[in-house]
Fold this sequence. Notes:
The chain is an alpha/beta fold. The protein has one domain (2-249): Ribonuclease Z/Hydroxyacylglutathione hydrolase-like (Metallo-beta-lactamase, Chain A), CATH 3.60.15. It contains eight helices and 14 strands. A hairpin with a 2-residue loop joins strand 8 (144-153) and strand 9 (156-163). It binds zinc ion (ZN) (2 copies). InterPro entries: Metallo-B-lactamas (IPR001279), RibonucZ/Hydroxyglut_hydro (IPR036866). Residues 34-228 form the Metallo-beta-lactamase domain. This is Beta-lactamase.
Amino acid sequence: MLLKFLGTGTSQGIPVIGSHHPVCLSTNQKDKRLRTSALVTSDSGKKILIDCGPDFRQQMLTNIEEQIDAVLITHEHNDHIIGLDDLRPLIFKNKSSMPIYCNSRVAVEIKDRFPYAFSEQKYPGAPSFDLYEIEKEFKLFEEVEVQPIDIIHSEINILGFKFKDLAYITDASKIDDKEKEKLKNLDFFIINCLRKTEPHHSHFILPQVLALVDELKPKKTYLIHISHHLGFHDEVENELPENVHLAFDGLEIEF
Length: 255
Ligand SMILES: [Zn+2]
Ligand SMILES: [Zn+2]
C-alpha cells in the first residue's frame, strides 16, 4: 500500500495569509504546507482519502489524482471536512454517491453542514454522500482493514486510523493507555506536532510527541499538522532524533 501526504500544515496552512514570519516567507517548497490530509492507495488501486479540508481541490490537481473511492474523516473541524463539496466531479464521474466513514457525532455534523448532499429533491449538481458510522475495525472493498483509534482532541473524541502497521493520527492532544496498546511497535507512526515549546490545549507539541515516540517505539515517525512556529523544515529535520521526520506535502511512503 501507499500513503501520500496531500497536506501537512495546521488549520491556517503555511504560509499564513499576511504573515511575515521567516518560515512563511521561506522559498523551500517543503516549508509550504497545505491543510493536513492524506491519500492511501490499496494494493488493487483503490484510493482512500483521509480528511477533506479547504485545500482538497488544489491537492488533487497538484498531485494529478483523479479518483477517490472512499473518505475517512477524523473529525468535524473545518480544516478536515470543508472540502467535501469539491468531491462533486468524482461523484459525478464514478458513482452516484461518495461513501464517507466517521464517528456518529461527525456524521450529524456533516449532515448539518452539507444538508443539500442528503436532500430527497436534489438541486441539480449537488453532491451525494453516504455516511457510515464506525466504531470498530472494518474492511473497505473487502481488501483494506481499517482499525479506528480513539483519540482525544481537547474536549472531543476523534478518530485516528490504523492500516496494517501504519497509524495515522492528527489533532491529538492525548491518547489513552488502552488505545496506545494498538500503537506499539508500528512500522510507521504518523502524528500531529504543532510547534516546539509553547503548549497548546488541543494539539501535541514536539516534547510530547518525542515522549510518545519513546514510549511506543515505532520504527519510523512522521510529523503532520505543523504550524510555522515549529520552524524551517530543513533545520527541524536535522534536530530530530533518528527515525523521526517531518512529513512534507507530496511525500509518499510505502507500507
Ligand atoms: Zn486540524
Ligand atoms: Zn481539530
